[in-house]
Amino acid sequence: MxxxxxxxxxxxxxxxxxxxxxxxxxxxxxxxxxxxxGEVRQVVQAEIAGLSExxxxxxxxxxVRAIDRRVRDIDQRDAIYLLTDAQGRMLAGNxxxxxxxxSPGTGWIDLDLFRADTNKQSKLSAATFLLPGGxxxxxxxxAQARVAFDSTxxxxxxTALGLTAxxxxxxGWLLSRFVNRRIGEITxxxxxxxxxxxxxxxxxxxxxxxxxxxxxxxxxxLDRIEALVGDMRMVTDSVAHDxxxxxxxxxxxxxxxxxxxxPNDERANLIQRAMAEAEGVLKAFTAxxxxxxxxxxxxxxxxxxxxxxxxxxxxxxxxxxxxxxxxITLRRHGNGSLVNGHQQLLAQxxxxxxxxxxxxxxxxxxxxxxxxxxxxxxxxxxxxxxxxTDDLARAVQRFVRLDPSRSGPGTGLGLSLVGAVxxxxxxxxxxxxxxxxxxxxxxx
Amino acid sequence: xxxxxxxxxxxxETSAYLSKGLGEAGFAIETxxxxxxxxxxxxxxxxxxxxxxxxxxELDGLSILKSIRAAGIATPVMMLTAMSAVDERVRGLKAGxxxxxxxxxxxxxxxxxxxxxxxxxxxxxxxxxxxxxxxELDLIARSARRGERMIDLLPRxxxxxxxxxxRKGRVVTRTMMLEGMWEYHFDPQTNVIDVxxxxxxxKIDPEGAFPLIRTVRGSGYMISGDA
Lengths: 444, 227
Known about the structure:
The structure holds 2 protein chains of 2 kinds. Chain A is α+β, with helices and mostly antiparallel strands. Chain A contains 8 helices and 12 strands.
């Protein structure tokens, strides 16, 4: 039974509650009895003081009278007195005989005696004295009240334990029922996701408690997984789309090339075209793979300080001759700023953006390569046709291609990789109107 | 005595393709289809270079490479991989590979790189100048002249020319130049290197002069004074 978490929890809860009420009551008992005992002794002490004064002023007869007076006093029911001569014969008091095994003058004692006046077995605590004339004196108090208190307290203890047990069981059961219900919701969600419902999320109460926090963390994780799976699907779709048509062309070129009736130079030409198609397929494939890996954050272990200024200087120098062919000037802006990043991927992102800009910028225009002044950034601005406002947001989405026909050169996946690189560096790719033209900026 | 190359590659097609091409290029070839045997051969008789596949049955390429290097064998190793990621390349080079090629590659690319690997130790003596026919590169003054004519070069053009001259008579691929001079381990979409070369060419080989920088179709460039 204790394998069940609920039972274990209830048992543990009960043990703790029982232990704590036991401790509390034990403390109450201990401190109360100490007070009671102390009071009894004080009363007895006062009586002894009074009697001893009677004895010193009026001798043994004065003492006998004082005791008789006190015994008769109805309020002194709890008080016990016994005065005997040296032989143990009673002179005064309400105790019939000197208790056995008690020698006078031994200080405080606890006794169990049968009281003649009340006909009851009594507990009493008393002090004994040996007077100078050989007489013995016992002054005590019936401890019956104390005994009654003890039994009351024990009854209280048992009742408290019983109640505690009941409450512990009840609260434990309620608490674990609550916990189980919340966990059950998470389990149910997980089960449904396992069964294929990846869009399912853990229900939240909105009260911000631990379960809500756990739930929202799990939901965030599920969002990420769903996004990745979605990307994955888009990758497969893109792969299918991007690779099927060139592969089909490749096969048809090769098929035609195997036709032996064709002239040799025509067959060589077909093989050349097939090779070009194969190269295109490889490029697209490499790009898709790189994007998928970057989106998955692979390569983060190679992060190192990268000087964005130097990175853009190098890129500008590499692309200057290409830009020059279109009479385009590459102008550097900003200074050297260090970021922690992946050197190769950042260089590739910059190179993709620059190639894009050169491709679209009009002859004789200027392209600005900005590495940021105050904060590090990587921005390429051109004066080309730009992207329409409707498409700006769409263009930075994963694996989105603005030009579905892809008539231009390149795989058309350049921006997707740049976006992935930006996300990998905890930043974002922002496209904006450069009035006219396009400004692509990676912030860090 | 012809130079010997060990090919450790499990795909029989690739292995045959490499053996045939490298055999025709004048190398003596030995092949092994699995990691364990490959390691045994590699640690044995002296090869001039080893071509090692990244993924192999029994023992993978990285482990073999580490074992070879741990055994103190410094034979140049060219890693081949189908994993086209920059991180993979770094791991390969860290494990002791001298060069790294991503599948699929053209045979010319491989051949050019193997030639470079085999020549590597030769650059020990201090050179003060590099020549090719009547082209002369002064490494001290960092200046170039062709015949009597001084050539004005930008720093990067000088660097490119030096890179080509140090590999005189051998093919230098575009990828090799991107890696060697710009440290770009990816292929840009545009033909950046071609444009750089054509600019350099205009300065080195003016009209009417004997062309020294040649385009090797499908592979890259080569500087050579031979007719």
